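A further point concerns the way the authors explain their paired sequence and structure data. Since the whole study asks how a given chain folds, the encoding of that fold should be made plain. A single example would do more here than another paragraph of explanation. An entry of this sort, consisting of the sequence and the corresponding backbone structure tokens, reads as follows:

_____
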Amino acid sequence: MEGGLGDGLGALIGKGFENGLGAVRAGFEQDRQRGLHRGEPVIGLARVAVDAIEKRREIEQLVARFDELEIEQFLLAGHGGKFGLRRIAVNREGGEDVGLRGAGGWCEVPAVFATYVHNLNPVLLRITDAIQLRWYGLAYLMGFVAGFYLLRHLARKKLWVLKPEQTADFIAAAALFGVFIGGRVGYMLFYQIPKAGWAGLAKDPLMVVRVWEGGMASHGGILGLVIFTWFYAKKHKVTWTGLGDGLCVVAPLGLLFGRAANFINGELYGRVAHGISWAMKFPLSLNEEPIAVQEDAFRACAQTAPGLPENFTLDTVITAARQDPKLTETLGQYLQPRHPSQIYEGLLEGGLLFAILWFVRVRFPKAPDGLLTALFFFFYAVFRIIGEQFREPDAAMVGPLTKGQFFSLFMFLFAAGFFIHAWRGWKTGRFGPGGSLGVKA
């Protein structure tokens, strides 16, 4: 195809960003006059990803002005002022490959991997509209049950400061006062209120207790457990660090199950990812797209599923799409492939962290009190900072850091304090529940 949008996009390669934008506009108008743009979106032009964020925003705003363009997956990679196109435009009505033409000829099209659109149901068992068993709640239950059995095992092996018969009461109290209260209050203070203000809470104060709808902050839960274990240790006359060591060993399993529930819910999704075979499209991520894209998506979904109620919401579409593969496919055309960051974080903060702490607890049964707590804070902070690199920020940034990364920095201070406590215990002969320092054969 000579001229038109194809050459206009190709001009971004040869003429640079600023000059190329004019060519894109002119090419689009040429194609419109040729009758290539009829009715609903014909050209599947992709979203733009450029190394420079400010350029990405400018191109997104440009493309969003073309209300007949369906934004899908148009990639640009910036290198030394030049741009390389990595995806083709497609005539959606006729299925014809329109292509992108530039000075170097037809662009090579890489394989498209991200075809899976997340459509898992967060409800495991629906009894009534008000009574439902959700995966989110089951994940917490599984974490508490696993924690109970593992802590009782450690207590029987004399690897924890509590007796086996005290384990059940401790887990129940930790779940209520530490995890639920700490996690929920932390979410409200760290995320909900800064995002929506106090007005939303004042209008609907019961949202604080609706944990089954999601919204738990892991940093808040950890802080809640720190406070709870301090009071519990005082009451039962056991060492606070010894009590915390056992809890820190099993806590990562709760994080693992929690991240699995986040994935099933399709929430806390990752950043845009291209060229990886395991990338996925999360319907809730439509909220990250420009308003023009969201409106186009809603119009297309209404045409695909005429039975949708009037003034439907994204949640309505997502629920209907679980029973309608065509609707899922339509919605997926307006979504970008993303990292399944919930899985990354679950494996790092949950699986790998548990493996490290369990190995230390069993291999070094006489490690000084506080060492395992220090290792928990240190590695959790490291893994959380790494995982956040792939996760779409769900709150305002703190400088160059996400809120999760920012809060994790303070955990290094906690880790340093517990490391110092453990070192002093080792130097003075005050060791953990196993007695004097040693290595298990």
User: Anything to note?
Assistant: The chain has 14 helices and eight strands.
